[in-house]
Amino acid sequence: MVGEPGVGKDAIAAQLHKMSPRRHGLLRKVGCPALRVGDFDAFLPPTGREGEAGTTVLLNEIDQLHYTCQARLLELLAAADGMPHGRDRKAWVATTSGQELESEVRAGRFREDLYYRIRAVSLRLPPLRLRREDISVLTNFLLTKYAAIFGRPKPSLSARTLRVL
């Protein structure tokens, strides 16, 4: 998934995991900017560990993954290719990025071979300022959610307030 900070990449990844056949497995979020080569064996190789079948590994901000770490990730993904696909595969890998990876590849900051391995499905998430029609739907959702959390009646907003939003 590609989008500016704050567009909801994590929320959409969590929802996709929740709607997938792996919904009963773990969703493990890993922040790529802080990863170093030695960290990869600690979070979960895509080949999986015993007892962790059905895990989805979300690599956040993969565009900020150190170049040497990209090589290690590529090794892990290549090792996972020998595993069964579909429901039996130990882990699925999803990524988020604040930058278009194609431009990062052209600039030499992201490995082309890794890019082609992870780009199977790419979702581009536009910022809310480019989808104003979603503001009233999102406002209604949030008002309903937080009214339930705090045990309060859902407030109603005037047409004028919605226009301001």
Give the second-level CATH assignment, the architecture of the largest domain. Answer: 3-Layer(aba) Sandwich
Mean pLDDT: 85
Gap from first CA to last CA: 26 Å
Using DSSP, what is the number of strands? 3
Radius of gyration from CA coordinates: 19 Å
How much strand content do the residues show?
5-15%
**Text of the CATH class of the largest domain:** Alpha Beta
Order of helices and strands: HEHEHEHHHH
Measured as a percent range, the helix fraction is: 25-40%
Q: What is the fourth-level CATH superfamily of the largest domain?
A: P-loop containing nucleotide triphosphate hydrolases
Number of helices: 7
Quick take:
With 165 residues, the protein is α/β, with parallel strands linked by helices. 38% of the residues lie in helices and 10% in strands. The protein folds into 2 domains: 9-127, P-loop containing nucleotide triphosphate hydrolases (Rossmann fold), CATH 3.40.50; 131-165, no CATH class.
Structure characteristics:
Rossmann fold; 10% strand
Description:
- With 165 residues, the chain is of the alpha/beta class.
- It folds into 2 domains: 119 residues, Rossmann fold; 35 residues, no CATH class.
- It is 38% helix and 10% strand.
- It has a 3-stranded parallel beta sheet with strand order 1-2-3, with helices on one face.
- Strand 1, helix 2 and strand 2 form a beta-alpha-beta unit.
- The two termini are 26 Å apart.
